[in-house]
Amino acid sequence: MLELDQLIHEARTRAAASESLAALDEVRVHYLGKKGVLTEQLKVLGSLPAMDRPAAGQRVNRAKQAITELLDARRHTLEEQALAEQLAADAVDVTLPGRGQEPGGMHPVTRILERVQALFTTLGFRVEVGPEIEDEFHNFDALNFKPAHPARAEMDTFYLKDRPLLLRTHTSPVQIRALLKYGAPLRVIAPGRTFRHDYDVTHTPMFHQVEGLLVDKGVSMAHLRGTLTDFLQRFFEKDDLKLRFRPSYFPFVEPGAEVDISCIFCDGSGCRVCKHAGWLEVLGCGLVHPNVLETCHVDTERYSGWAFGVGIERLGMLRYGINDIRMNYENDLRFLRQFR
Amino acid sequence: MKISTQWLHEFVNPSATAEEIAERLTLAGIEISSVSDALPPLDNVVTGEVLKVAHHPHADKLRICDVRVSAGKHLQIVCGAPNVRTGMKVAVVLPGSHLPDGTEIRVSQLRGVESQGMLCSARELGITHDHSGLLELPGDTAVGINLAQALGGADKVLEVEITSNRGDCLSVLGIARELGALFDLDLNLPPYAPVRPAIRDNLPVNLAAPEACPVFAGRIIRGLRTDAVTPLWMCERLRRAGLRCVHPVVDVTQYVMLELGQPMHAYDLKHLSGGIVVRMAKTGESLQLLDGNAHTLEPDMLVIADSKRPLGVGGIMGGTASSVQADTRDIFLEAAYFSPEAISDRERKLGVQTDAAYRFTRGVDPTGQTRALERATRLLLSFANGEPGPVNRIAGRKSAAAKLTLRQLKLRQLLGIKVPAGDVDRILSRLGFRTRKHGRTWEVRVPSHRFDIEREEDLVEEVGRVFGYDRIPAIAYPSTQRMLPLPEEQLPLARLRDILIARGYQEIITYSFVDGPLQQRLTGSPGIALANPITTDMTVMRCSLWPGLVQTLRYNLNRQQKRVRIFEYGMRFIAQHNEITQENILSGLITGSQYPVQWGLPQRAADLADLRSDIDALLVASGAVEHLEARVAPHPALHPGQSAKIRLNGVDLGWMGALHPKLLRELMLDQPVFVFELMLGPLLRAHLPKLAEISPFPSLSRDLAVVVDAGVEAATILGLVREAAGRQAIEVRIFDIYYGPGVDSGRKSVALSLILQDSSRTLTDEAADATVKRVVRQLQSKLGATIRD
């Protein structure tokens, strides 16, 4: 059966010479197709004597199997080559910048506002807002500002023309609105815009505050200190941040205090930012004045509360180094992009 | 207020440095903003006496002085000061030392004459700005002592910044009282005993405005020496407090005001006619005040008048006509209590600022007038002689001392710590309160100078601040609250903000007050005006966020930022009749190229469709995007062909469009600008999602192109297609719009892509084709559409 071995040898040579799957398929058809050489061999089996047929059939089948295997092997090789070529052709410069839109960002004041809100909502404080055009009652009277008291004049209030209304000078009116709406006990923070007639490096006529208010049974200065310590340590991410309470005066709290923190730049050892005092003023606070609670129909024998107000731009100044507060409202894109 | 610690030490003497005192006061609520030296370093400056003055042989303006600087030691000093004269006591800078500005003083030749030191003006010594001549020391000054010693010795000056409730601390006495409480020390008060009247002269006082001026006290002093000179020690104390010596009488009134906190005024008696009338000003009345200006008074201003005319504005400023002068011999000295309500805000109206008004506005002790008169009389008589008349004190009403109760329990509850009862007693009595303890309660009488103390809580603060806020621990308030409600049909604002940020927008925050004309131009509405705007371009409350966006755009275009995508949310203010509506809105602006310069996308300018897709994206969050529609509508700021009202579920939501080209020119903008403005409330209302069944059957897609009149709106076409295709059409999109060859002019070709699916069976090709046919018939009959092959 030299003829079959010759055939296999020849098929191997032709398969190896096939440089494409199509060429290889031609080789397959030539040997194994319906009219292929081996198929023809099987057809001639019938003409052999009956006793020779099984052996001859086996030989032809072995040859067929051998050719099938060598063709499959060659196919596999060719497929691998084709894939490799495809992969090489598909390669891109992975260092190319991506395509499409570039995201914008949020305003630094929003960043700080959200940070403060996030911290207080974990303690169950609800977020309340109030109108920016306010009346004397909510902005002053209900907050225990006496009519001729200089504390009123010190607020540098914007008034509307021909209307008995003003732009709120602080977010404290929301205390009144929330207390009248929900009563005690209550935990609220009130973020928002506030307005004062002032303009220089550290003052813009509009700025933002967050007001915090907790009214419940047995609330003391120690609780105020507790929450503010927690808040400021978390806000600045400094567990060793120290707080200093200085007595101060805001008509709507009694006792009242201003809170200083140990300087976050020098840890209290004295630097240019804290003017070598080691302390930075951050917010005003106190126990809610009983006159305020009574105006809001809260029983001062059952309840007491604390409140604080913090300037968002001041926190932004300390946190992000925005030393000229006016930059917040110039909205220079080159400035804003730094806080995305 | 500036205050000398030396002066304070006369009243109370804690063994503490000025810095320690400042710290204690600050931590007790009396802020000391600075501590500074009262005098510059004056080590080698001594007192001397000019014995002889001779002309300089080579210079007309120079004198050669023989100056005695100690017993037997004389220096020859060349001096050019105009006031140098024989017998004068002067400050001498000895050779080998430096002036405060660093100039070295040596023995030198001045135009050929040796000068062995320097005679100085106050400015050269760094004491005041006076450079009109040599600093003249009083005639009784000892020669040869250190100048600092002659001026009262080394001292520190505290800058006191009180909160507006603590008017009682605007004096040496007030601060001393605080220190007495903080250091637990007794006060040493100067003599306030009455000065025996030497004459009977008295001015009748008519208190015609007892509400505004409840207490008025005065006395006549006659026969003051006109050559009296205010003592150096007094001048020096005034100087350390930031005041100038001007006239013995005025200096004494200022001194007493600083010491006791009681403002005073002195009138030249010869200019008064009849008695004193304390009354409200008459309409149109006018008066020249000590600031040199004539002021027209208003009926809410209090005047001190005589029988003919107003003399001064009570508690604020005296008038020039009756003021003391160099030749004044007889005076009427006034110490009154004006109520804060009668003073407040009048300063601003008059355009003046005075120490007196500052104090009266914050409250002055209503019982301190006689004490101040006696103190001033005693001081004045000590160097200017004079004969005092009796004190005439008229009081309209008597204010009873408030009586309060302080409960130990309340104290502990509010402070959160237990303050020992002994400390409470000590603190309150040092501050001038009188206390009596009954069981666990104190009965407290409030002193007349503490008109800020009205309730128990005020006493709690007094005890707390002196005891020390820093002794109050930090305790977390126990959390007993339930979780807060979290309504899912209310979107958090952050959701919308983050959508815009992801789409390339930068958040901005602009002022709530804007330029009136710009707002008028952008909205057709003037906006609500401010009574007192801070600048001429921030005069009205915004009724739209577009003015802020446009100003921000201009700011950034001027700084080479050509691609701007910004948004803001916040309140707008609209007046309707007497109501003001304050609503939150969300507005955005895009201009320049839609995408940043990049390799993979061709550069193209942003257009209205880009803006629309951002608006659609906002509504995806609320699940209402299919209920959004844009309707052609004119807007004063927008391009008439690119302006649309945005509606949601048939209700107006806002606007979108391109800024009008004319407006762009007015604003000097040279590229198209697209803006939107939407009510925030409806945007934040969301549906709670409810799962709909997902069809398991395959969908089929069909494309078709129809030619319609160019004016037919896309929304109309899409609506008709959806209507004809029915529920089978799960998606209908326009994928091309074409004008040009092959399409008649005035017509356009709109290519549509439909995805069809049935929820209950596999859709056959035949069924899909039938649906498309229905769509085509609908478009043909309703729009005269033709099919484009």
State the CATH topology of the largest domain in chain A: BirA Bifunctional Protein, domain 2
Name the helix and strand elements of chain A from N-terminus to C-terminus, one letter apiece: HHHHHEEHHEHEEHEEEHEHHH
Write down the overall mean pLDDT of chain A. 92
> Tally of extended strands of chain A?
9
- Biggest sheet strand line-up of chain B: 29-32-33-37-36-35-34
What's the main sheet of chain A like? Answer: 7 strands, mixed
Mean pLDDT of chain B: 93
Low-confidence stretches of chain B: none
Text of the CATH class of the largest domain in chain B: Alpha Beta
**Class by helix and strand content of chain A?**
alpha+beta
Coarse morphology of chain B: elongated
Main beta-sheet annotation of chain B: 7 strands, mixed
Please compute the radius of gyration of chain A using only Cα atoms.
Answer: 42 Å
Task: Give the full name of the CATH homologous superfamily of the largest domain in chain B.
Answer: Phenylalanyl-trna Synthetase, Chain B, domain 3
Which percent bin holds the helix content of chain A? 40-55%
Number of strands of chain B: 41
What are the segments of chain A in which pLDDT stays under 50 over at least 5 consecutive residues?
none
* Form type of chain A: rod-shaped
Q: CATH fold name of the largest domain in chain B, please?
A: Phenylalanyl-tRNA Synthetase, Chain B, domain 3
Distance between the termini of chain A: 82 Å
Summarize the structure.
The complex is a heterodimer of chains A (340) and B (789). With 340 residues, chain A is α+β, with helices and mostly antiparallel strands.
Structural account:
The complex is a heterodimer of chains A (340) and B (789). Chain A is an alpha+beta fold and 340 residues long. Chain A has two domains: 2-90; 108-339, BirA Bifunctional Protein, domain 2 (2-Layer Sandwich). Chain A has helices spanning 2-17, 21-32, 37-44, 53-90, 108-121, 136-139, 150-153, 173-182, 221-235, 290-295, 312-320, 327-330, 333-336, and strands at 126-127, 133-135, 165-167, 186-195, 206-216, 243-247, 253-262, 279-288, 304-311. In chain A, a hairpin with a 5-residue loop joins strand 6 (243-247) and strand 7. In chain A, helix 1 runs parallel beside helix 4 and helix 5 crosses helix 11 (312-320). Chain B has six domains: 2-38 and 155-183, Phenylalanyl-tRNA Synthetase, Chain B, domain 1; 45-150, Beta Barrel (OB fold (Dihydrolipoamide Acetyltransferase, E2P)), CATH 2.40.50.140; 205-395, 3-Layer(bba) Sandwich (Phenylalanyl-tRNA Synthetase, Chain B, domain 3); 403-470, Phenylalanyl-tRNA Synthetase, Chain B, domain 1, CATH 3.30.56; 493-683, Bira Bifunctional Protein, Domain 2 (BirA Bifunctional Protein, domain 2, 2-Layer Sandwich); 700-788, Alpha-Beta Plaits, CATH 3.30.70.380. Chain B has a seven-stranded mixed beta sheet, sandwiched between helices. In chain B, strands 3, 4, 5, 6, 11 and 12 form a six-stranded antiparallel beta sheet that branches. A five-stranded mixed beta sheet of chain B has the order 14-17-20-21-22, with no helix packed on it. In chain B, 42% of the residues are buried. The mean pLDDT of chain B is 93. The interface between A and B is large, with 86 and 87 residues.
